[in-house]
Design brief:
Blueprint lengths: L3 H19 L7 E6 L4 E7 L4 E7 L3 H6 L5 H18 L6 E3 L8 H11 L5
Parallel strand pairs: 1-4
Antiparallel strand pairs: 1-2, 2-3
Helix pairs in contact: 3-4
């Protein structure tokens, strides 16, 4: 039986492994996904300066009213489209996708596909 600490360490190790592979993609900001049980958040981060350039979340006030009653996958699609629109306004076209320790399916995949359809390249 594994303890909570061991599970956390394993998950953190996966996230670090994914992020290490992304370091090879130089000059591109990182699109980082955080998924909780009921919400999803995305940030586009410039790792060189350590700044968040663009962010979108299902917890934002105007988004919360628009997503009322939607399934979690549909919410992720809306957030993906929203972050892509904000990135375009900020002058960002190419990013690298950081899924963290999450598998690339379900909400994470839906968010990525929606961001690609809205014009973000990764």
């Amino acid at each position: 039986m594994t303890s909570t600490f061991q599970k956390h360490q394993r998950r953190r190790g996966k996230a670090i492994s994914v992020r290490t592979k992304l370091r090879n993609v130089t000059g591109r900001p990182r699109l980082s996904v955080f998924r909780s049980l009921g919400n999803i958040s995305v940030q586009i981060i410039d790792d060189v300066r350590g700044h968040t350039l663009v962010a979108a979340s299902s917890l934002e006030k105007e988004v919360r009213t628009a997503i009322k009653g939607l399934r979690k996958v549909d919410v992720a699609k809306r957030i993906g489209t929203l972050v892509a629109e904000r990135a375009k306004r900020a002058g960002l076209a190419k990013v690298c996708f950081d899924r963290g320790s999450y598998k690339y399916h379900g909400r994470v995949k839906a968010l990525a596909d929606a961001a690609r359809e809205a014009g973000l390249e990764f």
